[in-house]
Amino acid sequence: MLDRVRRRVWGLSGRLIASYILVTLAVGVLVKVLVLGAEIPPRVSNGQLQAQVIAAARSYGVQIAGHYADNVPSGTVLGVRGQPAQPGRSRTGPDGALVVPAITGPIHSDQGVTAVVAIAADGRVAASSAPSRYPPGRPAASELPAQAIQETGPGPMVVKGGDVPTRYGDVIFWVVGLRSGPGVGGVLPSAPGRVAYVYVQAPFSPGVIDLILAWCALGQFDTAGQLMSFPFALFAVIVPVGVLFGLLSSYRLVRRVRRLEQATLAVADGDYTVTLPASGRDEVGRLEANFTTMTRQLGSALAAERQRATGDARTAERARIAREVHDSISQHLFALRMIAAGMHRADPDNQQAQAIECISEDALRDMQTLLIELRPASLDGAGLAPALEEMCAAYRDRLGVTVDASLDDVTVPAPVEHALLRITQEACANAVRHGNAGRLAVSMTRQDGHIELTVGDAGTGFDPSVAHSGSGLAHIRERVAELGGTVDIDSAPGRGTALTVRVPVP
Question: Which pLDDT belongs to residue 435?
């Protein structure tokens, strides 16, 4: 049981589940990093820049209240002179305070600038650090964001700020009302030129921010706990989802692989009849189809090898029998014929000796024919025509039979070669043994997609319509039928036999 669990955990299913979990976690973390990369800079920059804007607004409020008790002189330009104007960017000094440059010339940009504007009690611009953009005497409502001027009426001034879009880009602003005394008192009397409150803005352009410092700074905000707890929540959700998804997605694949494993074990045990249905068009499906093809080819090859081995064993056994017959029975028959011949020469009138001599001579002839049949010519890769020539030569040399051979050199499949060789062997043996033929004619030609083999003799012949006890012709017909060919036998008693076989070949 433990081994089975271990194999499942470290198997294909376990690895797929682990990969799903890791990939999902990696994607989730990457998405969160991208989200934080877009979320942290605005939050951190907003917080830092807003603190600087607040400090600058309060500082300028104190300065204006202290230096201009009555009103701001006409043409006063607020801010720090000699500082470069950088539209779209804010700048801090060595002490970390926001630097408001005094911009006396025109501002050729549609971006926001760091600026301070003094608003009079009557709602008009009294002075600013950028007169070309916020000219004195203009209504503040037409120059400043609506959020900064919506409470400029009589009564206590509400200190407020925020980040808003303007026609010059996004800015962070802060409004500070001037009071008659430090920390107490009412709003200064409404009068032309008398400053009632101060407006300070800075363009919101975070630029490049150190993410490590930004993450540390993000801890100061209320939402930092939610942002930092996200990875833990992500892990708690992804693990069970990854396990479930991995099990569902890998179940069918693992089952197919295990079925393939069982099939390979069966083949390893010698069962080549195993087949696997192709359960898909993917790589595993093609592997199943190729596996089935492989087992079929192995089965066919094994069957052919067994058949070849059986044929080799049969041939070896026939050769052994032929050798034993030649070494024993043939020698006895030869000795018997020699004795009978000697007795006949000693006593020419001895009919029994003459009969024994004739019978033994016929028996030797039949024995030689049987030996040729038992030890036929072999193909041995030389081709059909050379094998037939060798067999014809054996009949000439061993039996003294005249053989006229006309054999075309043809190329046919191995099964056809083997069958035609055995058919020729059977036909020649029948002609010599049963037809007492002293002359044979063997021909083989190829014509019109057929191989035509003819074996003729000038022996005693026979009537083809009469059933015979021998099985030679039956074997010939069976072999030809297996090849899809035809057999034609032309014979009659006293005029020999002609056997013609036609076999189709590609």
Answer: 83
Q: How far, in Å, CA of 176 to CA of 151, rounded?
A: 12
User: Are the beta carbons of 187 and 158 closer than 8 angstroms?
Assistant: no
- Quote the DSSP letter at residue 98: B
Backbone angles phi, psi at 334, to 5 degrees: -65, -40
CA–CA separation, 211 and 67 (whole Å): 42
Give per-residue pLDDT as tens, 6-16: 555 455 566 66
Question: DSSP alpha helices (H): ranges in 221-229?
Answer: 224-228
112 closest CA partner among 231, 5, 199, 190 = 199
Q: Mutual orientation of helices 12-67 and 211-218 as an angle, nearest 10°?
A: 80
Does the CA dihedral 485-381-454-321 come out positive or negative? negative
Q: How far is it, in rounded angstroms, from Cα 421 to Cα 442?
A: 12
Measure the CA angle with vertex 318, ends 316 and 322; round to 5°: 115
Who has greater pLDDT, 459 or 158? 459
Question: Which amino acid belongs to residue 493?
Answer: P
Neighbours of 214 (CB within 10 A): 19
- What is the reported pLDDT for 261? 82
3-state secondary structure of 489: strand
CA dist., res. 205 & res. 81, Å (int): 23
Please list, residue by residue across 235-271, b when 16 or more beta carbons sit within 10 angstroms of its beta carbon and e when fewer do: eeebeeebeebbeeebeebbebbeebeebeeebeeee
Instruction: Return contacts of 351-355, CB within 8 angstroms, 24+ apart.
Output: none
What does the pLDDT average to over 165-187?
68
Segments in 75-194 forming alpha helices (H):
140-143, 146-149
Angle, vertex CA 295, rays to CA 290 and CA 301, nearest 5: 125
Tell the burial category of 438 from Cβ atoms under 10 Å away from its Cβ (0-12, 13-18, 19+): middle
pLDDT mean across residues, the chain: 77
Q: What residue type is 122 in one-letter code?
A: D
Beta strand pairing status for 439-447 and 402-407? parallel
DSSP 184: -
Is it the case that residue 155 has pLDDT exceeding 50?
A: no
pLDDT digits (tens, 9 = 90+) for 294-305: 888 888 888 878
SS3 163: strand
Cα of 21 vs its chain's centroid, Å: 22
Contacts of residue 243, defined as CB under 8 A and 6 or more positions apart, other chains included, come to: 17, 21
Name the one residue in this structure whose structure tokens are 């990696």.
26
Q: What's at 373, amino acid-wise?
A: E
Token code pair at residue 281:
């068009």
Question: Helix 283-327 to helix 329-346 angle, to the nearest 10 degrees?
Answer: 30
